[in-house]
Amino acid sequence: MTDVEDYIAGIEGEQKAIMEFFHRLLKTELNLMDKIRFKIPFYYQKSWICYLNPLKDGQIELAFLRGNELSDVQQLLSFNGRKQIAGIPFNKMADIPADRVLEIIHEALLLDKTVPYTVKKRK
User: Fold this and answer.
1) Which residues are registered as beta bridge partners of 44?
2) Residue range of the domain that includes 10
3) DSSP structure class, residue 77
4) Long-range CB contacts (< 8 A, 24+ apart) of 33-37?
5) How confident is the chain (123 residues) per 10-residue block, as mean pLDDT?
6) In-domain check, residue 123
């Protein structure tokens, strides 16, 4: 088992099912690499794409590190006061609009492949 799989094994209930679904999608089907960072699972290709964040209210948030650069034509992304990171919270597996979420993931992967990430300097 990888560190991320060990982490997910320690989660319970609906949160675990959601995390297993996204881990399988991101790691197995989309061939992203995974790593525990800041005590949660992150997924990357050339740079960090997204992470799975278990929230205190029982939700799992799929968060995109370059969310501010995504089109969000699906109208699913929420910034929650953040300037760059945008996420989608899920309460249960039935809440996941898989096709629309997959579109966002593919857009994030395309962005990672075609537009190098640059750190913007603060003034």
Assistant:
1) 33, 48
2) 3-114
3) -
4) 34/2, 34/4, 35/3, 35/4, 36/3, 36/4, 36/7
5) 93 95 96 96 96 94 96 95 96 94 96 81 61
6) no
Q: Can you give the pLDDT at residue 39?
A: 96
pLDDT of residue 103: 96
Domain count, the chain: 1
- Please report, for residues 15, 21, 55, 123, the alpha-carbon distance to residue 58 in angstroms, rounded to integers and kept in the order given: 7, 16, 6, 38
Flag whether 122 is in a domain. no
109 backbone dihedrals φ, ψ, rounded to 5°: -70, -40
Contact 25, 96 (CB under 8 A): no
Does residue 119 lie within any of the structural domains? no
CATH number, domain of 71, equals 3.90.1150.200
Two tokens at 50?
């997204």
* Residue of 13, 7, 34, 3 whose CA lies nearest to 90: 13
Distance CA 7, CA 36 (A): 8
